[in-house]
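note to self: the first set is below, dont mix up w the second
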Amino acid sequence: MSEACKFTRLGKKIDKISSITARQLYTLTMQNRSNNYQILGKRVKRGTFHRVRSQGIDNVTKTLMTLSLLVACDVISLDDITTIIQRITSLLEEDIDPEDMFRIIRKYLKESFQ
């Protein structure tokens, strides 16, 4: 990974539909090998960059733990999670509005949990 994920362009919309912020996503997708610490084009201190990155890693870890618990408790199957992730990925590639994506996935999950 040497350039930012193209989905960081969604900005604040990511914050509404995800457990990771656009700033955190940006830091996780960038390999900062220089002293030029930037987040979404804004110069920041090294400590700020690494704090935001660490928060992103924590949020991803919590998300994965949540999914693992749901699978372990037979709330959702691993196959269902794979299907959902593939569907979200295809929606992202189609440039569907993130809030519409959220509604689509939420509806699917509500039906799955009944």
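second set (the one i keep forgetting abt)
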Amino acid sequence: MLKTILLNPLEQNAKKVTDLLNQLTQEYQQLLKYDKTLLLATFPLNEQTLSILEEIDLITTDLRGYASQIAINQTIQSPEQALKNLRFLQILENRSLGEIYFFQNEKFPVTYQYLQKLDYLKLLLIDWLTSQS
């Protein structure tokens, strides 16, 4: 006989965050395997910006940090500041990432899906933080 476990909305959201964090960790390796060379060739580094992979890494690191805190501690340090940071983070406002997402998604399907999930994780984190208030 299967037991049904009911989670409250906050626990459900925390589980979604944790599950998505695990997916992103695996999918980042696929991104590097399949799209890395073409990404670097299509979006070459110029003197004043980071490479496209460095941009993705920075966003990923920020979101993973928040998601890991939820997964491990069921809390986020400085929640008000975290919420402010997440609301300010505009993933697709980055010119190169927006180009991939809106115009070259068929050329970079792995990166496109990864960006979708990053954005979804950001929204889940915002939802989790606002439900804490």
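remember for set 2: Residues 47 and 110 are 27 Å apart (CA to CA).
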